[in-house]
Amino acid sequence: MQLEVIGVGGAGCRIADAIRAAEPAGGSFLTDVFAFDTDEADLQRTVLPESHRYRYGAESAFDDGLEAATETGQEHAAELLEVLERGSPTEADAFLVAVGLGGVTGGGTVPALVAALQRTYDESVYVLATLPADREFDPNAGEPSGLGGGSRKASAGENTPPRPDAATNAVRTLERLEGVASAIVPFDNETWLRPGEELADARDRSNRALATRVAAVFAGGGESDGPVAQTVIDASDIERIVGNESAIVTLGYAEQTVETTSSKFGLGLLPTEREVEAREAVSAVETVVRKGIRGKLTLECEPETAARGLLIVGGPPAWLNRQAIAEGRRTLESAIGGSGILGGDAPRPDGETVFAGVVLADVESDRLEELRAAAARST
Ligand SMILES: Nc1nc2c(ncn2[C@@H]2O[C@H](COP(=O)(O)OP(=O)(O)OP(=O)(O)O)[C@@H](O)[C@H]2O)c(=O)[nH]1
C-alpha cells in the first residue's frame, strides 16, 4: 500500500524523518513524507527535501498553552492541506499523521489537520502519537525498578525539560482526536526509556524502533519490483483491522538475523545462496511471531484486550515457511480476545532478518488510564 506521512511539531517531524529512513530498499510504501513545524531550525535537521518541509505560524503563536494553540492550529489547517498538494496526496491509500503528545505545537495543530484531511480525502487518517514520559510532568517519577539500582529517584533530568502540563495536554489532544482520527497508535515514551536515560538521548533509538514497526506493517505487501507476497495485505485489509472509529492500536515487532549465504564459496568465489531447511525456517518464524505478540509493544497492554489483530511475517523468501506463518496466525488468534485476524507475508529478497510485524487493534491500556489520572490531579 502507499502511505502518506505527515509529521507535525518537533517529535512528529523527527518520527516522519525516521519513517522515511526506514523505507525498505528496493520498494516504496511511501508516497510523500511532509514535516510541518513552527521551528525552522528543527525542520532543517530533517532529511526531507525543502519542498516537503514547511514552517507555519509564528513560534510565539504557540506560547499561550494548548487551548490557544488549538485555535491557531485551526487557522492553519487549510494552509497545511494546500502544502500537501506539492506532493501526490491522491495517490495515498492512507495518511499517517505523527505527533508528540504533551507539547503545544503538534498537539494544537493535529486535531484540526486530521479533521481537514478526513473532509478532503476518502482514505483513512491514522495518528501516530507519542505519550509523554512520567518524568516530564512528575518530578518525583521513579526509575523503573528491579534493575539493580534500588529505588533511586530519577528527577526530570538535565536534558529532559519538565513539562508540567504534558499529561493534561496529551489527554486533551487525545480527546480532540476521538471521533476524528480513523485510529490512534500511541507510542509510550515511558516504556521505551532505559533506566536513567534522558529523553533526548533515547529519542533517535525510539524513533527508529517506531519507524521499523510502521514499515513492517504498512510496507507488508511486498516490494514494487520484487517478488509478490503469497498473501498480500493491502490498505483495505489494514483498515478492516485497525478500524475507522478512533480505536487505540498498538504495534509489536520482532526480528531474527538469519544466514542467507553459504560459507562455502561457489564457482567465481561468490557466496552462494544457502539452502534453508524447513525446520530452521519454522523455528525462526515461530520465534519472531511469539516475541512480536508477547514482546514490547508501542503501547503496553494485554493482548487479550484486543478486538482484532494483524500479523505480517517478512524476510528472505526461502525463510517464509507457509505452514509456520499459518500457525503464527493461529497463535495470534488465540492470544487476542476478539476474533478478527488477518495475516500476510512480506518477501524481502535482500533481507537478512526474518521479522514479524503485529497489530493489536482496539485495545485497552492501563497507561492511558494513568495519564488521565495524572491529568486530573494536575487540574
Ligand atoms: N519518541 C519521541 N518522543 C519525542 C521526541 N521529541 C519529543 N518527544 C515527546 O513529544 C512531546 C512533545 O514534544 P515536541 O514534539 O517537541 O513538542 P511540539 O509539538 O513541537 O510543541 P512545543 O515544543 O510545546 O511547541 C515531548 O513532551 C516528548 O514526550 C522524539 O523525537 N521522539
From TrEMBL:
Keywords: Cell cycle, Cell division, Cell shape, Cytoplasm, GTP-binding, Nucleotide-binding. GO terms for molecular function: GTP binding; GTPase activity. Pfam families: CetZ_C, Tubulin. One of its GO terms (cellular component) is cytoplasm. It is found in: Cytoplasm. One of its GO terms (biological process) is cell division. Residues 135-166 are annotated as: Disordered. InterPro entries: CetZ (IPR032907), CetZ_C (IPR048737), Tubulin/FtsZ-like_C (IPR037103), Tubulin/FtsZ_GTPase_sf (IPR036525), Tubulin_FtsZ_GTPase (IPR003008). It comes from the Archaea. Residues 196-375 form the Tubulin-like CetZ C-terminal domain. The keyword Cell division applies. Its main location: cytoplasm. Residues 5-136 form the Tubulin/FtsZ GTPase domain. GTP binds at E136, N189, N207. Belongs to the CetZ family. Involved in cell shape control. HAMAP family: CetZ. This is Tubulin-like protein CetZ. It comes from Natronorubrum texcoconense.
